[in-house]
Amino acid sequence: MSTRLDHRNPLVFDTRDLGRRPGAMQKVSRTVPAPADLGLAGVIEVPEGSSMQIGLRLESVMEGVLVTGITVAKAVGECVRCLEPLELELNARFQELFSYPDADGRGRPKAEPDDDAEDDEDRYFVEDDLFDLEPVLRDAVVLTLPSQPVCREDCLGLCPECGLSLNDDPDHHHEAVDIRWAALQGLVVTDQDDEKDNMSGAASGVDEKQEK
Length: 212
Known about the structure:
Blueprint: E1 12-14, E2 25-33, E3 38-40, E4 44-46, E5 51-60, E6 64-78, E7 85-99, H1 117-120, E8 124-125, E9 130-132, H2 134-144, H3 179-211
Parallel strand pairs: 7-8
Antiparallel strand pairs: 1-9, 2-5, 3-4, 4-6, 5-6, 6-7
């Protein structure tokens, strides 16, 4: 048995004014607080409780209520290149049919839809003249948000050597050393140090002879 919808929920909408008259249409605008976990966790999402503007067009059809809408909100996240915080305006559009429950021989709605259970999983229903927009809204937002958000299209990211933001210093670079020469470079440094030590020793010997 499904839980009855609560008309006080800001994402639950009433269709009674349509009167189940095919062709009837109604427009609804509403500002609602964003539900929790709306977006791509750990990447970018609409903050819980932030304002979302929703505009809907409800159309009565034989099978139920066709809902066409758009939601406008602000999403926040982190740039995948430079790791700086970012904010973008989200415009998510959607359209979904909310079906009427199956009716009995007298045209009265049954308590529960009796379609195949697997088919019902992909359908949304009008219940007691109400429908819940949240699952449709969630799908629309997730499909609209970028999976790899960037603060700007030409973001240069971070230096892989030291982590400095290349946006702040585009000319920043490190001298690259060919790994094939790294060992030889070490030998050269060692030889130079040995040569310095030898020269120092020779100079000390000369000084001692002069003193004698």
